[in-house]
Amino acid sequence: xxxxxxxxxxxxxxxxxxxxxxxxxxxxxxxxxxxxxxxxxxxxxxxxxxxxxxxxxxxxxxxxxxxxxxxxxxxxxxxxxxxxxxxxxxxxxxxxxxxxxxxxxxxxxxxxxxxxxxxxxxxxxxxxxxxxxxxxxxxxxxxxxxxxxxxxxxxxxxxxxxxxxxxxxxxxxxxxxxxxxxxxxxxxxxxxxxxxxxxxxxxxxxxxxxxxxxxxxxxxxxxxxxxxxxxxxxxxxxxxxxxxxxxxxxxxxxxxxxxxxxxxxxxxxxxxxxxxxxxxxxxxxxxxxx
Length: 290
Known about the structure:
Layout lengths: L1 H16 L12 E5 L2 E4 L13 H28 L2 H4 L1 H25 L6 H10 L10 E10 L5 H9 L6 H11 L2 E3 L6 E2 H7 L7 H7 L2 E6 L2 E11 L7 H34 L14
Antiparallel strand pairs: 1-2, 3-4, 3-5, 3-7, 6-7
Helix pairs in contact: 1-2, 5-10
């Protein structure tokens, strides 16, 4: 019976929302109350879009009111169980606001004044001074590979192109691969992890150093496919990364250092300005903080 009465009340509210009755008045009409908190008719504005049927409107309003009540119940429970320090949100909100204001100002300053051009000389200098920071965690390789159907008639052509001891005919390989290869990779400037290559090309490698020293080209058949790989260069695990591999990382570090230096310089300048203007004072005899 009580639930039926609630639905009737909600239906009445929905009907009112469809009329001009839901206008601001000097005295708000209370729709629901929970632990001394009130939900007013004005809070329901916009809950039901124009053109929505009566039953759907009732459901929307009912869901909104129920959600509001559940939230108030949870807030009431939290307020009664948290200590005063946890409930002191004013200080927390002030600190959060201050952090946002400072961050926004620093971001604006960086956008306006930071020099984002990093020269090759700067990158090279940083690389030479910090080589110990660029040790490889994985064995890296530069390769060209093609994957062919096992009965592909162009296998001999690919083998000749890939197995040339003096040069790689990359353009020819790329053109041929577009027609005949199931998959190919011809970017010899890109370093990739050896274990990632092994996930694509099922090479059995037990000792990376020994294998890479002995093999410049490998070809084998597995599961109706022919795999051909030409190893152009390699770097063993724990060796130093080449500069081209870490260039972007170095540039990011240099820019981060510039940002930090700019922020610290700005903070120091503002502090000194405030000091000269006697904008702050530290009082003698202030209580010691422990």
